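Workshop exercise sheet. Pairs work together: one partner reads the sequence aloud, the other fills in the structure field after running the prediction. Swap roles for the next sheet.
Pair: D.N. / O.F.
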Amino acid sequence: MRISRRSDVSPFIVMDVMEAARQRELAGHSVIHMEVGQPGTGAPAGAIAHLAAQMAGDPLGYTVALGRPDLRERIARLYQDWYGLDISPERIVVTAGSSAGFLLAFSMLFDAGDRVAVGEPGYPSYRNILSALSLEPVGIQTRAENRFQPSPAEVAATPDIAGFLVASPANPTGTMLGRDQLAGLIEHCAARDIAFISDEIYHGLHYGDRAVSALEISDDVVVINSFSKYFSMTGWRIGWMVVPESHVRQVERLAQNMFICAPHASQITALAAMDCQAELSENLEVYRTNRELMLRGLPKAGFDRIALPDGAFYVYADVSDLTDDSQKLAREILLGAGVSVTPGLDFDPLRGGRSLRFSYARSTDDIVEGLERLRVFMAARE
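Structure field:
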């Protein structure tokens, strides 16, 4: 059977790292997971209880393609609560996770062959989904002095682009764009008819000033968000988009044909999760504690060149003084320390051989143990 050229995308390296860690555990070894951006907690207990009650009398058939109206209305209320914005529920599209949101956004906005700019380091699936849709991802090599966030000048130096995607807080760095920085990027794109997509899946996970939504600056943007991170619902595959009013019917037709609807059980759970504030706040405090532990503990293990994370639950470290092969170093750390970390090549194909990403999304006990293992292993490695 033939295989398409567009399906020849790069692997999602962190998934391969997860599998290697799983194999070590199956062989009887203890592994501390710092590789994956997955909360150590599950969906809020109140949300799971709500789903169980609903399942007793509801067959959970298809919903409309745009998502349950009550969930869309509740998401609209979140924009009022978090940002003081009056967003119409009609503009909200419930998706099967943010991945479905990217598929829908890219399909809605771009034609085959269009060039779409993404900052590097950045989430690898941006590039790979674009490539699978016969679009051309164009990497913008962001700089440490800008905390690995793109600038309007860097976007301007990237010719012939139809779209630009930004993330704040970002994966893998956890850094955020301030309001003026974000506005500058949006205004630059608007003046040149460049579609602007804002990945906001780590909103709610911040440790100082809150993240700014692109919707606070313009309605002529596409925002993608998810219940995976702040709401701790990774495997439920549920997220949402906010699109301009003029694009609602377009994305609805795509969603009808690509997905029919997001998983109904996940929609019910997500609706209830949004009102489990006490549990969600407790999770955030765990991440806050873990972040402080990482910022103190990683330098003691020799990882002292880091971008200070404003949000999310990652630390991105420059390890160029240790290696130019981050995959090899990550493998050494897994086998020698029993700590699973992600090589930077997942996020930056050109420079990622000299970087590692550490996640602090797990329990505090795991973070303490993982940092001690790293310290001991790296000291012996010298």
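Discussion prompt: The chain is about 40% helix and 15% strand. What would you look at next?
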